[in-house]
Amino acid sequence: MRWLLALCLMVLPAAAEEVVLGLSQDEVAITTSFDGSEILIFGAIKRDAPPPPGNLGVLVTIAGPAEPVSVRRKERRYGIWVNTDEVQLDGAPSYYAVATSAPLDDILSITENLEHRVTVPSLLRGLTVPASVLDASAYVAALIRVRQAAGVYQELEGQVVVDQQSLFRTRIALPAALTEGAYQTRILLTRDGEVVSRYETTIEVRKVGLERWLFTMSRENPFWYGIMSLAIAIAAGWGASAAFSFIRN
Amino acid sequence: MQIYLPIAEVSVIAFLLLGLGGLVGVLSGMCGVGGGFLMTPLLFFIGIPPAVAVATEANQIVASSFSGVLAHLRRKTVDLRMGTVLLIGGLIGAALGVLLFNYLKSLGQVDLLVRLCYVVFLGVIGGLMFIESLNAIRKTQKGTVLPKRKKHGLIHKLPFKMRFRVSGLYISVIPPLLVGLCVGVLAAIMGVGGGFIMVPAMIYLLGMPTKVVVGTSLFQIIFVTGFTTMLHATTNYTVDVMLAVLLLVGGVIGAQIGTRIGVKMKAEQLRILLAMMVLAVCGKLAFDLLVMPAELYSVGAAGGH
Questions:
Q1: What's the rounded Cα separation, in Å, for the pair B180 and B224?
Q2: What mean pLDDT is predicted for residues A212-223?
Q3: Are residues A59 and A109 in the same domain?
Q4: SS3 A50
Q5: Does the pLDDT at position B32 exceed 70?
Q6: What residues of chain B lie within 8 A of the CB of A80, using their CB?
Q7: Buried b (16+ CB within 10 A) or exposed e, B54-70
């Protein structure tokens, strides 16, 4: 009896509850008519035993590929507003959303937030900032503010619906202006603020068809891309003047 | 209908772009201007990144100028020799302009440069046009028209003289080269054809006859904007074909409609209308520069270092 209890205690924290995940789509295709996308993320919590005690929380995060950004500050010079200072920040995701099943403070402790880098501020704590910058935090705060205002960084508290302690689902809207790449998706399961299970997957976002072709050509064959642009322009100009003189006669 | 622009990486309403192209096309057909100086700021306002707006607009101007120059070639109102001299200046200017553009882009000041250029040029041109057309209206009401005088100033003392038969001129090649150079720089920085600067310069500075001025400037503009398009496409990757096609479809249709309307209206009224339009765009741009922005920080892609 004793060794059974001991075994249970050893196994419990690791595999008592596990996430089984489904996605409405694991690929987002940017087509010509792309104007944003909504991803349905759903799943179940697998258990071998009855639910353990403690307040259950489900957190879903999606992070776009990180690319270096430069944050510029405007100042008034000679009466007009001019970009004066610039700081380059490395490692900020181009998109980030965190959806939770309840107010964040109730289901995630501060230490776990820092450990797993869940909220936007804790996610951006690890940003590489040049050592020469004195007020780096002001720039990081500005980055968060600007991106939150643009809907690129989202905190969706209470947007994860949990049914009967075992099924959960949420919808996360991806904006129209998306960066291509692998979007890291995480599901965190918490009990009383502690993370008990973690599941990760990726959603691929890529331009397809005409978008893909034009973009690739503009980067890989810029000369021929330019020639093509000019040819289209000249053909359109000639075509229009020919068409209208035909109509007139 | 939303359309995703592959290079600008923004999603916009296709009909908005067609409409903008059409609106500017109507104006340019009515007033005989390229319309680039109105289109580029309008593209800023709908959220196209300035670098993409400038490069793409250069591409669109090639289309509208090409359709215009065909008509002028048929009427034999193009001074090819003068056009070539202006063009040589223009190509040098465009190369310098793109260099300057890329340098300021690396400093993060390119938006400011483009906007400042617009405020200054739109302000000056709009103001001059407004005053000039007001005077013209007053004069036609009085019924007196001042005769044109031929001036013999500094321009006629310069060396390297050349004969331009179509224009009936025998002048130094230096002034047209310089005019071409300035227009080339502007074309690269502002994404305009530069007709609104070149036409007055050709009439007042070079003394060319009015009937060959528009055709000749269009001839030069095609090559300079074509060259600018290539430079932007190969160094900045900022030419968005999708955007250009939408704008020029609207533009060429609008231009044909505009030409019909233009025939029915008086030249002075047209110019006052255009001047007010130019001043309105200038005012909006200046307002944005002068008033404290709600957000002092801006986030952009790192690069250029």
A1: 9
A2: 84
A3: yes
A4: coil
A5: no
A6: 116, 289-290
A7: bbbbbbbbbbbbbbbbb
Integer-rounded Cα radius of gyration of chain A = 25
Nearest to A237 among B11, B63, B230 (CB): B63
Interval A48-103: pLDDT, tens: 777 777 788 888 888 888 888 888 887 777 777 777 777 887 778 888 888 888 88
Query: What's the domain count of chain A?
Result: 2
Taking Cα atoms as reference points, which of A72, A89, A85, A66 lies closest to residue A153? Answer: A66
Instruction: Please check whether residues A102 and A220 belong to one and the same domain.
Output: no
Is B300–A72 a contact, with Cβ atoms under 8 angstroms apart?
A: yes
Mean pLDDT of A166-170: 85
CA distance B172 to B161: 4
* A9 confidence band (pLDDT: 50, 70, 90): very low
Integer Cα distance of A147 and A136 in angstroms = 17
Number of A–B residue contacts, CB under 8 Å: 177
pLDDT band at A159 (very low <50, low <70, confident <90, very high): confident
Give the range of the structural domain holding residue B49, as residue numbers without chain letter.
2-142+154-290
Distance CA B232, CA B55 (A): 6
Structural domain including A50 reads 13-206
Give the number of domains in chain B: 1
**Do A199 and A220 share a domain, yes or no?**
no
Query: Does residue A224 contact residue A217 with C-beta atoms inside 8 Å?
Result: yes
Find the closest chain B residue to A73 by CA distance.
Answer: B297
Q: Is A240 found in the same domain as A198?
A: no
Of A80, A139, A149, the CB nearest to B290: A80
- Hey, is B295 helix, strand or coil? coil
Residue A115 sits in the same domain as residue A58? yes
Residue A225 and residue A223: Cα distance in Å, rounded?
A: 5
Does position B155 have pLDDT exceeding 70, yes or no?
no
Assess whether pLDDT exceeds 60 at residue B74.
yes
Q: A244 lies in a domain?
A: yes
Chain A residues in contact with B232 (beta carbon < 8 A): 226
Contacts of A211 by beta carbon, 8 Å cutoff, 6+ apart: A30, A31, A32, A34, B4, B6
pLDDT at residue B92 in the model: 92
pLDDT digits (tens, 9 = 90+) for B242-278: 888 888 888 878 877 777 776 777 767 777 877 888 8
* Chain A: closest CA distance from residue B302 (Å): 4
Strand A37-47, strand A17-23: pairing: antiparallel
ipTM over 0.85: no
- State the CATH number of the domain containing residue A156: 2.60.40.3880
Please report, for residues A61, A136, B295, the alpha-carbon distance to residue A145 in angstroms, rounded to integers and kept in the order given. 19, 14, 9
Start-to-end CA distance of chain A, whole Å, equals: 102
Give the mean pLDDT of chain B.
79
pLDDT(A186) > 70: yes
Angle at B27 between CA B79 and CA B16, to 5 degrees: 125
